[in-house]
Amino acid sequence: MPWSNQSGGGGPWGPRKQGPWGTGPQGGGGGNGSPPDLEELLRRSQDKLRQVMPGGGMGGRGVAAIALGAVLLWLATGFYTVRQEEIGLNLVFGKYVGATQPGLNYNYPAPIGRVEKRPVTTVNTTEVGYRSAEGNRRSGFRDVLEESLMLTGDENIVDIDYAVQWQINPARAADYAFNIQAPEASVKAVAEASMREVVGRRNIQQILTTDRGAIETEVRQLMQDVLNTYKSGVEVRLVQLQKVDPPQQVIDAFRDVQAARQDQDRARNEAETYASKVVPEARGEAARIVQEAEAYRERIIAEANGQASRFKQVYEEYRKAPDVTRERMYLETMERVFGGTDKIILDNKNGNGQGVVPYLPLNELQRRPTQGAQK
Q1: Which domain holds residue 47?
Q2: In terms of Cα–Cα distance, which of 119, 118, 124, 95 is closest to 107?
Q3: Which of 215, 220, 234, 244 could form a disulfide with 239 if both were Cys (CB 3.0 to 4.6 A apart)?
Q4: Are residues 223 and 270 located together in one domain of the fold?
Q5: How far apart are CA 59 and CA 274, in angstroms?
Q6: The whole model's pTM is what?
Q7: Has residue 258 been placed in a domain?
Q8: Are 351 and 328 in contact (CB under 8 A)?
Q9: Is residue 195 domain-shared with residue 98, that is, in the same domain?
Q10: Mean per-residue pLDDT for 325-340?
Q11: Is 194 helix (H, G, I), strand (E, B) or coil?
Q12: Are residues 51 and 92 in the same domain?
């Protein structure tokens, strides 16, 4: 038989090169280099299979067994594994039919089915306004002015670098896989547009000083709303401002303004501290003066009421006995007038009626009290 020829005849099918079924064909026409006959090749292949197959023949059951084995092997290719940080997306005839969780899963094998895997626990960082080879760290960064320079609400320019941390929403992984073609570029474009909108609603003083936290929160919320509108399947975790400065060309002038504002604030604080100390003291002093005035008023009113009451009492007595009352009032008045003065009393009863005028040294008497007062 031709396949049992071990003579080593020439030609490409000699013993120097054997095919998968043993010795290669010898070639029709006595090895003159002509192409082999296909029918001869098929016949030899069938004969070889008869030797390999049990029973020496290949009937219908053998063909069915081979076909069944091939089908089983094909179906076995549908098993796949999803890692812990991933989620699987099953497609059948190109249509999304469901998601699978980490572990061993099954889908129709190719070309009927296909599986897309996406990392849902990985946190991605998108840098806007700068580029850094070490991710979010600020060492060795390169500023990108076309992204970082923004117009404020009071028509000033501010230089803002910020980072956005985002990841795939596990519940919307299909949207992420099939609705957007360039997730990184989409997130970056939405981040830049959102930041410009939020910055455009504030003046530069608020942006540089007090509103950094509010800006981060508003930008994150606005980004999430826009990405949800696009059905992107992206969840924004954090917006973090890295640098908020005036443009480099005017930063020195802005720092001078900031220093002047700080001096102003310090002076205002000192004035408020002084006022908080002096005002209570002044209010206390005013309250004391008011109390003294009220006490004086009450005393004067009480004295006036007492005098009026005494006058009324005197008047009532005067009405009852005018002469006696007049005499008493005269004596009391004389008592008040002469009570604190020097007095010289002359007793005419002892003059014996001789008409002698007594000599009184009035000048000496008046001078003595004056000298006593000077001493």
Answers
A1: 2-57
A2: 95
A3: 220
A4: no
A5: 112
A6: 0.52
A7: yes
A8: no
A9: no
A10: 82
A11: helix
A12: no
Residues 46 and 92 in one domain: no
Q: Is residue 322 part of a domain?
A: no
Give me the number of domains the chain comprises. 4
> Is the same domain home to 225 and 258?
no
Lookup: tokens for 6 = 């071990």
Tell me which residue of 76, 78, 84, 77 sits closest to 103, measured CA to CA: 84
Task: Tell me the per-residue pLDDT of 233-281, one tens digit each, with 9 for 90 and over.
Answer: 999 999 999 999 888 887 778 778 778 888 999 999 999 999 999 999 9
CB contact at 8 A, 130 and 183: no
Side-chain-side CA neighbours of 247 within 13 Å: the count stands at 11
Give 87-106 pLDDT, tens digit per residue: 888 888 888 888 888 888 88
**Structural domain ending residue among the three candidates 85, 100, 119:** 119
Return the residue matching tokens 């003579």: 7
339 in any annotated domain: no
87 and 157: one domain?
no
Provide φ and ψ at 121, rounded to 5°: -100, -10
Tokens of 53: 């197959």
pLDDT computed for residue 19 by the predictor: 41
Query: Does residue 259 share a domain with residue 165?
Result: no
Nearest to 25 by CA among 36, 33, 16, 34: 36
Distance CA 238, CA 343 (A): 107
Run of H or E including 238: strand 234-245
* Phi, psi of 202, deg, nearest 5: -130, 155
Question: Which residue, 239, 232, 237, is CA-closest to 191?
Answer: 239
Distance of alpha carbon 99 from alpha carbon 85, whole angstroms: 14
For the cut 60, the answer to whether the pLDDT of residue 54 exceeds it is no
Q: Rounded to 5 degrees, what are φ and ψ at 335?
A: -65, -40
188 and 229 part of one domain: yes
CA atoms within 13 A on the CB side of 79: 6
Evaluate whether 87 touches 172 at the Cβ level (below 8 Å): no
Beta bridge partners, 117, equal 88
Residue 109 to residues 34, 69, 116, 195, Cα–Cα distance (Å): 43, 15, 13, 46
Question: Contact, 235 vs 228, CB < 8 A?
Answer: no
Q: Is residue 329 part of a domain?
A: no
Distance CA 207, CA 202 (A): 7
Among 137, 119, 136, residue whose Cα is nearest residue 127: 136
Q: CB–CB of 162/239 below 8 Å?
A: yes
